[in-house]
Design goal:
heterodimer; A: mainly alpha; MetI-like fold; globular; B: mainly alpha; 2 domains; 15 helices; 0% strand; flat; transmembrane (chain B); membrane (chain B); Carbohydrate ABC transporter membrane protein 1, CUT1 family (chain B)
Chain lengths: 297, 311
């Protein structure tokens, strides 16, 4: 009995398998280590943060930093935290509103345009598509100076509408590319059958093609949402106040205050990565699909 | 393949035989569906782009009176600007480090993922997570880990007796650039890994079986089977690595700010235009950055166009 067990163990633990286990551990350390370290630091008492050598676990875990950030404690308890909450709340709302609006605007335009680029013949199709996709390589700052003047003229600086439009222009090329490749990967026969039955092109698009392309649409929405959520250089210029300033611009400002609090910065960072974390854990399949289709299948 | 080609040919023929107005209606519908794309991209990308190109030939500087036409002066001045040269050198170093590390690491990660069974899904989620994290947050997390006194990295290096005392990473140009590259690679490597994993999964298993029967070593199999069959996706992955690193802003700004030691080309554009208000000079620089970026990514565009034509 025990002989058989040890035989099985020695079979299981070949050098190749041990090596692979070590590799997996290293990959996990590289990918999750920095996130763990931020979480670890965010749960420490301020005095434990400055221990040398640093603690691998919080010696006295506390949620104080979070409750300060989220305004859950009295002003007397933590003056720094309590004054941060209104800004943190505004920045969180701004991040969510611009990410959702930018994503919706982008995928609606990209779904319709992507279908036209994939299936319909019209003059200038290839040129327009080529030009739009080429802007993937145009750095944002190449257009930002005239864009800034344009937005000032239209009164759209520091407004949700202005940011949403800029994000649409920034992320449409990738979204169009993705949607077009998803449409191209669908079998044409269904659409052709519907047309032979006398269905109009638009009916076919909304009732047959879009439902089939739903995984692609979700993948495109996820990639767009995560791209807007992480934007920094655009709001750095176009969101000067808390009317639209997102978390990505607010959190580094915490770091440049004189009362530098690493626990606070780490806690704010952990809260800012919650939405992406949820997406990666629960919608991973769609995300991978979007990323690989983006590579130009 | 042949079947679908004859199919679509037949459809085209029947379509032509049908209503003469059908092509016109299709073109009208196509145009209408694409119209929002044209409006958004035209107003917010192409119009500003043309403005940038045009205005870069004038002197636009709120600190100086008038906006005279100065031709290529902005461009010729750029080539002798020590700040621009420093930023170009920094950017090229960042691109080199990023492309090499992302490609080697991404391929290694993809091979490891490919060799896994049921747990692949979970390892893949863990690997992708850094890509989804805002680069600003990611930079702040790393700058805390690299804190000279309290950071975990220096504590480990001290424990290994590789450094003594507080090594200040930002005080040393090489170390600071390596740190920025590392933070950028941490975020972008997952994309290469995912692209390469998809490419690996597309290789027919029979090819590996054949190589095994022929007695090829695993290294030989990698060189003769895996690499040639994934060359296309690898080129795409390297192109996007290059373009992303070329346009690096967030990580260098958070970790190095305006420091000339680590200033990237896009930070130089931002400083020139929005901090020093030399508007048209910044525009000229951004046009050059764009041309370089476009040249590199022509692989992307050519592939896209090739696909459109073959269709």
């Amino acid at each position: 009995m025990s002989e058989a067990l040890s035989l099985r163990l020695s079979e299981a633990l070949t050098p190749a398998k041990i090596g692979k286990g070590v590799l997996i551990a290293l990959v996990l350390l590289w990918s999750l280590g920095p996130i763990y370290w931020a979480l670890n630091s965010s749960l420490m008492q301020p005095v434990d943060l400055t221990a040398v050598p640093p603690h691998a676990f919080p010696p006295a875990p506390t949620l104080k930093t979070y409750s300060g950030l989220l305004g859950l404690q009295g002003a007397a308890d933590n003056a720094t935290g309590a004054s941060i909450w209104p800004h943190f709340r505004a920045a969180t709302i701004n991040s969510l509103v611009t990410a959702v609006a930018g994503t919706l605007g982008t995928i609606v335009v990209a779904a319709l345009g992507g279908y036209a680029f994939a299936r319909l013949r019209f003059p200038g199709r290839n040129i327009v598509f080529g030009l739009v996709v080429a802007t993937l390589a145009v750095p944002g700052y190449t257009v930002i100076i005239p864009l800034y003047r344009l937005m000032i003229k239209l009164g759209l600086v520091d407004t949700y509408l202005g940011l949403t439009l800029i994000y649409m222009s920034a992320f449409l090329p990738l979204a169009l590319w993705l949607m077009r490749s998803f449409f191209l990967s669908l079998p044409k026969s269904l659409e052709e059958a519907a047309q032979i039955d006398g269905a109009s092109r638009l009916y076919t698009l909304f009732r047959i093609v879009l439902p089939l392309a739903m995984p692609g649409l979700i993948a495109t929405a996820i990639v767009t949402f995560l791209s807007v959520w992480q934007q920094f250089s655009v709001p750095l210029v176009f969101s000067p106040t808390y009317a639209t300033k997102p978390l990505t611009v607010m959190i580094p400002e915490l770091a440049s205050r004189h009362d530098l609090n690493f626990g606070l910065i780490n806690a704010a960072g952990i809260l800012a990565i919650l939405p992406p974390f949820v997406v990666v854990v629960f919608l991973n399949r769609f995300l991978v699909q979007g990323l690989t289709a983006g590579a130009g299948k | 393949m042949t079947l679908s080609m004859t199919d679509s040919y037949r459809v085209r023929v029947t379509r032509r035989l049908r209503l003469t107005g059908s092509d016109a209606r299709e073109a009208l519908l196509g145009g209408s569906l694409v119209l929002p794309v044209i409006v958004v991209m035209g107003a917010l990308v192409f119009f500003p782009l043309v403005m940038t190109a045009g205005q870069s030939l004038f002197r636009i500087d709120p600190m100086r009176p008038g906006t005279p036409f100065i031709g290529m002066t902005n461009y010729t001045r750029l080539f002798n600007d020590p700040e621009v040269r420093a930023a170009t050198a920094n950017t090229l170093w960042l691109v080199l480090l990023a492309v090499v590390l992302e490609t080697l690491g991404g391929v290694a990660f993809a091979l490891l993922l490919q060799s896994m069974g049921r747990a692949r899904k979970w390892l893949l989620a863990a690997i992708i997570l850094p890509w989804a994290i805002p680069s600003v947050v990611n930079s702040l997390m790393w700058s805390w880990m690299f804190n000279p006194t309290y950071g975990v990295i220096n504590a480990i290096l001290r424990g290994l007796h590789l450094i003594s005392g507080d090594f200040v990473w930002s005080n040393n140009r090489t170390a600071a650039l390596v740190l920025i590259a590392l933070v950028h690679v941490w975020k972008m490597l997952p994309l290469t890994a995912v692209i390469m994993l998809a490419a690996l999964q597309g290789i027919p298993a029979q090819l590996y079986e054949a190589a095994k029967i022929d007695g090829a070593s695993s290294w030989r199999t990698f060189i003769s089977v895996t690499l040639p069959l994934t060359a296309g996706p690898l080129a795409i992955a390297m192109t996007q690595s290059t373009v992303t690193a070329f346009n690096l802003f967030d990580e260098a700004w958070i970790l190095g700010g305006a420091s000339l030691d680590t200033r990237s080309l896009l930070i130089e554009v931002y400083m020139t235009a929005f901090q020093n208000l030399h508007m048209s000079y910044g525009m000229a620089l951004s046009i050059l950055v764009m041309l370089a970026s476009l040249a590199v990514s022509s692989v992307f565009v050519l592939r896209g166009r090739g696909e459109t034509h073959s269709e």
